[in-house]
Amino acid sequence: MTSGASDVVLIAYDGSENAKRAIRHAGHFLSASRAVVVTAWEPLARQAARISGLSGVMQPGWVPDVSAEDAALADAKMINEEGIDLAQKAGLQSEGRCIETITTVWAAIVDIANELDVNIIVTGTRGATGLRALLHSSVADQVLKHCHRPVLIVPPCDD
């Protein structure tokens, strides 16, 4: 990647060790004028509705306290701040964004990448294989399949 005034790297960050590794690789191998660390979050009310729908059991309605910040957003902000700090330590001029997922995490990442017109997306992956990979599709794999931008996928450390 050539360095220029408009070079923007989007780093998907969820606080996992694999995401931390992806930030270190981005700082080591990429030069860009700007890095945006993105943390996706889902409101607790939507999480509760999705989980209760999966259980097949009718759940009583839950109305969140709209005067207080959603706990999921507060958690996402803390995770995002950690990612910004790691990116800055890796040598990247970084800023953060917490993005609300409407459908899936990978779709939220693709949407924000398009909105920001980034040059490359960096993400870690769990490196799942076999049956586990079939049952739980990787966010990184879905970003790669659905985003028409370069994607750097950093695999987990081989311990």
Automatic annotation (TrEMBL):
UniProt xrefs under Pfam families: Usp (PF00582)
CDD domains per the UniProt record, alphabetical: USP_At3g01520-like
Species, as recorded: Hoyosella rhizosphaerae
Protein name as it appears in the record: Universal stress protein
InterPro entries assigned: Rossmann-like_a/b/a_fold (IPR014729), Universal_stress_UspA (IPR006015), UspA (IPR006016)
Family to which the UniProt record says this protein belongs: Belongs to the universal stress protein A family.
Residue span(s) of domain UspA: 8-155
